[in-house]
Amino acid sequence: MANGIKQLLDAWECVSRERSLFLSTLDYLLELMTSALDQPYDVVDTGGGASVKVVHVEPCQYAAAITEVIKNGEPEWSLNERVPMILAALLHMISSVSDTQWPVVVRENKDGSKQPLIITPDLRRSAEKPAGLAVAALKTLFLRTQSPAIIEDMNQARGWSECLDRELSPDSNGDFNERLMVDCIRLLENSLADQSLRIRKLCVRGLGELSECSSEAISDRFASMAVEAAMGGLDDIGDKNDAVAMESIIALNKLVSQTKDSQLLGILRQEYAALRAASFKLFGTFSSIVEREMNRGRLPEVYAVAQRDLAGVLALSFPDRVNQYTLTCSNYFKCSNARMRASAALLAGNILGVLTPQLRATISKDLVFSSLVLLLKDPEDVNVRIAAVKAIGNLHDFS
């Protein structure tokens, strides 16, 4: 095993030192890592309502390979040009796998064959957690770019340990840089039409994070644009696998307070099952908005229309039960809650108003009509009396 590892490291060193291969190899590894970090772990049920996140092998492989490429890559100026991309990829990995564990068993392929053992005991000893591979790559990068001061600062602040623990994080992110924030948002907005599907997807994801912006002024300023970008992602022409559409729904879920009702009508009609599931989650979030808007007992503007449509469906779909429905409504005429009495009267009137002559003959008219007349004298709430008048107004075909 030791000889095999030595040969593998020698191979990476040869590739890295080859000037014609270094840049393409590094760029390819960064692209592979970015793809692998879309879903870098499996959630494993451990019983008793508990679960753990088990890291996939792929991002660990790419992080280890990037470390070797950084260590030996030539020419040095080419590596310096890629520092921002490398930093972004490694920080992305740390944030994605900081709460994951090494796999205990080897995963099986779909054909039943097992993958080779890559997570060895030696690796577990050298890196306590999967995020440790990204930390090792960062240290190598800082050493190679002659930035020992950064390593020293991280050592003194125990920053490397914080990278490995999801529960640890900086107490403050410093002063808010509004100009930098605006520049980043504008860059995301301008990249929404990028040819790369992944870039468009990540732009939508980034704009969705505006909901967490610490500056309310910035959030309000760009909220409408972010919502429009998310809505546009639902109809992305090149999004064959609905990756951008899924990200758009997640973004809308975060931006729900700034989203207009008229923008959301087509979301539940998506053909892709996962999109519909995410859409229902989005609409579930709207319950908090509805609760806030319907405070102090105010009814929705479409309440009367919705009740009238419901009455028509009940009467025409279940004609053998219309008398039962109206009698049930009349029972609620005596309810202690005024809104219940008013709603029952309106529903009964709407049902009776759409009946055919044959169905009208099945109604217990004396009982229902006399109960409606009593509601005209309701002593507690004028809305109940108004509802009774509206209900009686639908009975003209019974004359």
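Above is the first protein from milestone M3; the second protein from the same milestone is given next.
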Amino acid sequence: MKINDLPTELLTLILIKIPGKELCKSIVLTCKKWNKIINSESFWARKLLLESLASQKLITTLINFNCFEPRRLYFKNPYEKNLIRNPCAEFGYEYWHTRSFIMLKYSREVGSSDYYDFYNGLYLQNCFHDSLTQQEYWGFKIEPDDYLSRPAYDLEGNPFRYYATPYYNATKYQLIDLLSEGVDQKVMEKIKPKIIIEDWYAARTDFGAEYKIDVIFYDSQYKKLEWFEYSEKVPKGGDGKWKKFKKTIENYSKDVRYILFEHFGKDLEFIVGHYGTKLTNSSLKLLF
């Protein structure tokens, strides 16, 4: 018996075990029968569930709003996952941009629609990743998980690493391009998933600290659509416990393309060193 003599269902069970890139690169060209199976929406929907790359709830929601593109979702699913990279310093300063006092929400237009950071002479869309030396210079230091504060733990009980701030405003941020992440514009227009922002912060037990977070939405031309901020001063002599900031955003413009996540901290004693706010476990998720 040749493999093509197998029933379509059995052949599907074999093909669905093959990595997606190999399927699209060469296997799909094998014959018309295989091509038909691989190019079917049901094949990629099953593969999504088999490899736990999308929940049944997500798939059902996208189908109900006629936004389900299973192959696209298989290779790049931006929903129900954290779009903030390296939130807990697992990879040092990778993916974070740092500036001592960027305050991007006060930027003005220069020439075209480019938003400009006057503090540092940078166009918003041309921010480059800083070197380790620059990161340390602009005020951050990665510390052990329990250095003069209570450790923060993930769901598996493992302690987070975190970024400690100095005596002046030290800012780090990520600019998230929703289109590059794989977000479908139809989804933002028809479904408008909830945008959930979370961030963890703490002060040392022997120093007071200030925490602040800004989240700004821009359209494709970097025009500011909406933004919010939150700040808190934690007095000296506290218990060192971690606090979670959480914000759910539902009523936002359908034209949002970029989201700027920016947070900063400092100590309240103005002492040289890294005695300010501790930051970790940042997240930005699109949920249905």
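Note on the second protein: The mean pLDDT is 83.
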